[in-house]
Amino acid sequence: MTEAGPLERWAAVAARACDAKSGDETVVLDVGDVLAITDAFVITSATNTRLVRTIAEEVEEQVVLAGGPKPARVEGLDDLRWVLLDYGSFVVHVFLDEARRYYELERLWADVPRLDWRLVPEPARRPR
What is the strand order of the sheet 24-30 is part of? Predict the structure, then answer.
């Protein structure tokens, strides 16, 4: 594996943060070749709205601690069914389970490559 660039590192950090807070079936999709507005989607889901919020907060914190950016915008915190953290080069989608099943983003983007985020080396952390 070649050394991961910033996009891969930060997307992997986001995916690990989802996984650490019990995100379900976390995936990273490489959508850059088919979608002009971003390069990657990180997708996860949770069983309840409190966990959706917890995961979104953890992603934001861990990406910054890894030297990454803060999201340019965050949407969905009002009802917590689908929280979107837009980092520009990647977007994190934290779904409530039933919303994820309804929108089926993985099926919509089934033809794009997946990044195995577990194989991307973890970056050095900034002190808290």
Answer: 24-30, 40-46, 90-96, 82-86, 73-75
* CA 38/CA 57 separation, integer angstroms: 21
Beta bridge partners of 92: 42, 85
Distance CA 33, CA 85 (A): 20
The three-state secondary structure class of 88 is coil
For 25-57, the pLDDT digits (tens) are 999 999 999 999 999 999 999 999 999 999 999
Q: How many helices (H) and strands (E) does the chain have?
A: 4, 5
Cα–Cα distance, 88 to 96 (Å, whole number): 23
pTM of the complete model: 0.92
Beta-bridge partner residues of 86: 73, 91
Task: Count the Cβ atoms, other than its own, within 10 Å of residue 24.
Answer: 15
Domains of the chain plus CATH, in order, are 6-109 (3.30.460.10)
- Specify whether the CB–CB gap between 22 and 46 falls below 8 A: yes
H helix intervals, the chain: 6-20, 49-65, 97-103, 105-108
